[in-house]
Structures are given as C-alpha cells and as structure tokens.
C-alpha cells in the first residue's frame, strides 16, 4: 500500500481477493466539457467523465461541489429545475442525451433514480412496484413482475406476506430497497443513487451496499456519497469533485480526478484528491 493508503487506516479498498477486471471501460455515458448553470450561475464547469457499463461509479467531494448537479444530468432531471441548463455534451450509448429527438420521459425510464430520503408512494407495497409499469401501459396482473423486482431488491422475503400493506409502514431501510425495486420494475439500464444511505442506520446501509454489488451484474450504477468508506467499499471507479474560485471570485464545481477506486484511495495523482481523502481538506 502506498503512503496515502497507510495514512488512511479507516478506508479499506477491496483487495486482489476480489478482482474486478475493470481495465477496459465500456462507456454507457461519455461526458465532454459539461457545464451546468442555474440561471447565470455556472455551478459546474468543464467536466469530462466516462461511466462504464455494469460498473459502480462513485462521485465524491465536499458539499456544494456539484455532485448531485452532475448526477441529475444523467437522466435529465435538471430539466425540471426552472433556470437550470446544461452545456457541453453527454452521450448515452453513443447518442446525444440532449438531442432534439430524445424524449426525457423515456430517458428517465431507462435511467432511474433513488434519492437520499426514501420516498415510497403512500400506497401498498404491491402498488408501489406496479405503478410505473402501469403508467408505461402494462395491463393486467403483475404478480410476477412485483415478485421479480422485490426479489432483485432483496426485499421479497421480508414483504411477501404483506404486499397489500402501506409502504410507509416499512422501516427506512426497507423503504429504500422498495424504492430500488420500484426503479427496477420499469426495466432500467442505469440506476442513479443520490446519497441513498445517508438516512439509514449501519445495518440498513450494509444491506443496500450488498444489494448494489448484486445489481451491478444487470445495471450500471452511479452513486453520489459523502461517505468515503462507502465509495471505497462499493465502487469500481471514483470521480473526485471540488469547488474552486475562478479569477472573478466565483465558485464552480470541477472534476479533479477520475480513476479506479483503488487508485484514488491509495495513490491519487492530484494533491487535492490526496488532501481530501486524507482528511486535510473538506
Ligand atoms: N436548484 C438549484 N438552484 C440554484 N442553485 C443550485 C440548485 N441546486 C444546486 N445549486 C447550486 O449548485 C452548486 C452545486 O450544488 P450540488 O447540490 O450539485 O452540490 P453537491 O456536491 O451535490 O452538494 P452536497 O454534497 O451538499 O449535496 C451549489 O453551489 C448549489 O448551491
């Protein structure tokens, strides 16, 4: 382990016993010179990033550096914020995500999102899962689909006997897995997670982290997390962002470094990354 790894005893990166074979990056998203504005304010400036297929990519960095802003660009959620605008280019499987012909609703079906606070609908567990497919035109009974989504989200065994119960009666961790099941039910390709464990206790957090390892067999995952240990535990690659002042004294979020997670946490190439992960900054 390098000097930085030695000075960070609390952060364990999965070692050679769990080889991940991630040298070749098969891009799902390619981000080129992405800047994101809220009105006249350029919150994020000049990001270049590639998100690999069926990998977990973590986005870390201090508060306000633009992690959530960049994440929301991947499924065009920023379109829903008045005054928000993206410049630059994001391709999704080689196609311009912001092209004129692209339907943002279909984008959000294929690229699902799980939020910081679990947000199930105030409906039954069953209807939470069935809702999306119904909206997308699926008719009739959905028992198999509901079971499949709940099984994939590692929740089936805990709820199979109470599917008609209100989802709000579940624990926070169960609600979050239900939200993941709800995202899965509309057969997405990518799942975006914005601090999905920050409202959960350590046991529920471990369950979600284990679940992410299962899910990456079928889905590409991008996670924003404040928790560096979590990024080190779950992700294949890590993007470190920071916010920096320009010559005019205006603060912009910037991508500092993007690399394999093991390298970011043991041998980063940028001093700012090193300072952040060793706790000297942020
Ligand atoms: N809806 C919005 N309208 C105006 N400014 C916004 C909006 N959302 C975010 N910003 C600004 O954009 C910048 C980046 O915010 P963002 O939430 O993306 O950062 P973050 O790294 O995810 O922060 P945190 O870790 O605290 O969640 C901040 O200066 C923030 O104030």
TrEMBL record:
The ABC transporter domain, residue ranges: 29-268
One Pfam short name: ABC_tran
Transmembrane segment boundaries: none
Alphabetical list of InterPro entries matching this protein: AAA+_ATPase (IPR003593), ABC_transporter-like_ATP-bd (IPR003439), ABC_transporter-like_CS (IPR017871), P-loop_NTPase (IPR027417), PstB-like (IPR005670)
Keyword Chloroplast: no
Family matches, as PROSITE patterns: ABC_TRANSPORTER_1, ABC_TRANSPORTER_2
GO molecular function: ATP binding
Keywords: ATP-binding, Nucleotide-binding, Translocase, Transport
This protein's name: Phosphate ABC transporter ATP-binding protein PstB
């Amino acid at each position: 382990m390098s000097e930085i790894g030695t000075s960070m005893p609390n952060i364990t990166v999965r070692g050679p016993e769990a080889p991940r074979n991630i040298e070749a990056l098969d891009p799902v998203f390619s981000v080129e010179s992405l800047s994101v504005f809220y009105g006249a304010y350029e919150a994020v400036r000049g990001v270049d990033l590639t998100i690999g297929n069926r990998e977990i990519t973590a986005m870390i960095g201090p508060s306000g550096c633009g992690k959530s802003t960049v994440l929301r660009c991947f499924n065009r959620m920023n379109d829903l914020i008045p005054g928000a605008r993206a410049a630059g280019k994001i391709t999704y499987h080689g196609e311009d995500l912001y092209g004129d012909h692209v339907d943002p609703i279909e984008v959000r079906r294929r690229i699902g999102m799980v939020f910081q606070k679990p947000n199930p609908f105030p409906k039954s567990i069953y209807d939470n899962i069935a809702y999306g497919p119904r909206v997308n035109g699926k008719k009739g009974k959905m028992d198999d689909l509901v079971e499949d989504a709940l099984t994939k989200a590692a929740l089936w065994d805990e709820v199979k006997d109470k599917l008609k119960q209100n989802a709000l009666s579940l624990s926070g961790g169960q609600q979050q897995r239900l939200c993941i099941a709800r995202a899965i039910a509309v057969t997405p390709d990518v799942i975006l997670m914005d601090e999905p464990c920050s409202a959960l206790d350590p046991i529920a957090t471990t369950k979600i982290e284990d679940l992410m390892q299962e899910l990456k067999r079928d889905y590409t995952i991008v996670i924003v997390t404040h928790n560096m240990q979590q990024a080190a535990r779950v992700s294949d690659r890590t993007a470190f962002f920071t916010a920096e002042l320009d010559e005019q004294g205006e603060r912009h979020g910037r991508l500092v470094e993007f690399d394999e997670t093991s390298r970011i946490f043991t041998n980063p190439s940028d001093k700012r990354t090193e300072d952040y992960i060793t706790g000297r900054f942020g």
